[in-house]
Design brief:
With 117 residues, the protein is mainly alpha-helical. It has a single domain, classed as Orthogonal Bundle (Arc Repressor Mutant). The chain is built from six helices and two strands. It has a two-stranded antiparallel ribbon.
Amino acid sequence: MLPNRMMLSRQTEEQLKKLKGYTGITPNVAARLAFFRSVESEFRYSPEQDSKKLDGSLVLDKITWLGDTLEATELILRMLYPGLDQKMIIKAWAAHIEDGIAPLRNHKNILSFVKAI
């Protein structure tokens, strides 16, 4: 369902990289946590209100982005957004990461980050 190569917005990438600098958590692992946090918070992507471009420079394959959560992530996206095409599903995935990373991005150490999740 998701393509092999995926990217995020430049702003989200910067937040993930900043978080890595503070906590040591790699962007792909932080993105997984952010995605599931966003889904649990009941955030829902709306294509009509989407104006973000996926213009980041960190282009990774979906196995790297999603790891062991690949199947669960794809199933959740299909369940939440059954009518979206592949291009829009990628945008939904990226929107969930942007939503989920927002409350986590400013933690200055791993301990405060773990307490927040």
